[in-house]
Amino acid sequence: MSRIIAGAAGGTTLASVPGSLTRPTTDRVKEALFSRLDAFEVIADARVLDLYAGSGSLGVESASRGAQAVDLVESDGKASEVCQRNADLVNTVARRKVVSVHRSKVESFLDRAQGAVRWDLVFIDPPYPLDEPALAAVLAKLLPHLAEGAVVVVERSSRSAEPSWPDGMERFAERKYGETKLWFAEPAVDEAPVDAPEDGA
Questions:
Q1: Can you spell out the DSSP letters for 128-185?
Q2: Which residues are CB-neighbours of 174 under 8 A, at least 6 positions away?
Q3: pLDDT the model gives residue 164
Q4: Calpha distance 175→66 (Å, rounded)
Q5: Which residues contact 197 (CB under 8 A, 6 or more apart)?
Q6: Which of 127, 185, 134, 186 is nearest to 156 (CA)?
Q7: Please, what's the b/e burial string for 57-78 (b: 16 or more CB within 10 A of its CB; e: otherwise)?
Q8: Residue 148 forms beta bridges with which residues?
Q9: Disulfide check for 74: which of 13, 53, 91, 141 has CB 3.0–4.6 Å away?
Q10: For residue 11, what pLDDT is reported?
Q11: Cα Rg for the chain, rounded, in angstroms?
């Protein structure tokens, strides 16, 4: 049974998706993940996107810890209903609508996202059967919607290959926790060319 670990709603038990098709992030991995994100100082006041949200546990954890707005994207009907239940728990504690649930395919959601939308923190925890080319396509669709200095966290099986990052996104860290591997990426920073000194300088 999963719970919110810390923040305004810390200790709250979360609803789980029935059946075995959804693979929730364990509390052990979630605690390690959020310890790193706290160190990166990317959660407070962030706009957060949780793709393939499942129960929404990563997104609502972010909301509990001070994220400004959280979007949960889940296509499965039962899972999206659980997302809404968990979103309601956090929104009630916050006394405002911090978490919004979108029942949609990830690709369709990103295609519809307005050009002005920029997320500071993105969780991507796709089902294991999703192949690497499909994940690469999602990462490419996501790239234009990342804020400067954004952090993207991809959760995969420890047996999976490193994701194929699109041009403009680069991996800066990785961590393995048993059968789970986390990849951390960010928008690439274009280095300004150094001007050559003028003659006589």
A1: TTS-HHHHHHHHHHHGGGEEEEEEEEEEEETTSPPP-PPTTEEEEEEEEETTEEEEEE
A2: 162, 181, 182, 183, 184
A3: 96
A4: 24
A5: none
A6: 127
A7: bbbbbbbbbebebbbbbbbbee
A8: none
A9: 53
A10: 94
A11: 18
Q: What is the dihedral of CA 130, 134, 140, 146, to 10 degrees?
A: -20
- pLDDT at res. 21: 57
d(CA 78, CA 28): 25
- Dihedrals phi, psi of 182, to nearest 5 degrees: -110, 130
Token pair recorded at residue 84: 């809404």
Helix (H) / strand (E) element for 94: namely: helix 77-94
- The chain-wide mean pLDDT, for the chain, equals 91
CA atoms within 13 A on the CB side of 168: 13
CA distances from 7 to 1, 35, 39, 96, 169 (A): 18, 12, 15, 16, 30
Pairing of strands 69-74, 47-51: parallel
Residues in the chain, how many? 201
Nearest to 123 by CA among 163, 158, 151: 151
Q: Is the overall model pTM greater than 0.70, yes or no? A: yes
Tell me how far CA of residue 115 lies from CA of 26, 43, 119, 142, 147, in angstroms.
34, 22, 11, 11, 12
Place of tokens 């789970």: 180
Under 8 Å between Cβ of 13 and 3: yes
**What's 51's DSSP letter?**
E
- Give every residue of the chain whose pLDDT is below 70, as ranges: 20-23, 190-201
Query: Residue 201: what pLDDT?
Result: 43
